Amino acid sequence: MQYNVAELLKGPAGATRQFEIAEEPEFALEAARMLGPLSGSVRIMRTQDGVLAEVQVSVSIEAQCSRCLRSVPTDLEVRFADEYRPTIDIRTGFRIWPLPGEEPDEELVIGDDHVLRLDEAVRQELEAAVPVQMLCREACAGLCPRCGQDLNEGSCQCEPEQDARWQALRDALGQAATD
Ligand SMILES: [Zn+2]
Ligand SMILES: [Zn+2]
Asked: How far is the CA of 66 from the centre of ligand 2 (A)?
């Protein structure tokens, strides 16, 4: 997702270019595996100070059910908008930004080559959009915490979990009965 915005930067504020996104991601996600290409669109508009990129991206992913650990396919979609600023005036070639003393957000800088790179922003947005508690289905029974049996496929031979406080009380009563 790289867009040369040199022509846009030469144009008036409000000028707009639209691009389709249909490409294999050049990054990986930590929380999920991507199953296919990125698709969507980018609308880039010249602003007073730089360009505003409005991005819409979707991708199919596979994440783990947080109860039974099975792979669950799902679709992610993110929409976001960021304004990016050029470091060099496209007409004069002078460095215009950042000014001395300014600490720019590196990700919101258009490179000296006038190329807008959106991969890192898209990666961060997708990463944040992966559901934290993914379930294969609402009623997923999960795994037995003792033997690891997938309880969706049938129950196991383990005793049901006993509440530790009741167990302590039973122990105390048992102790009293034998005294
Ligand atoms: Zn599950
Ligand atoms: Zn079990």
From this structure: 18
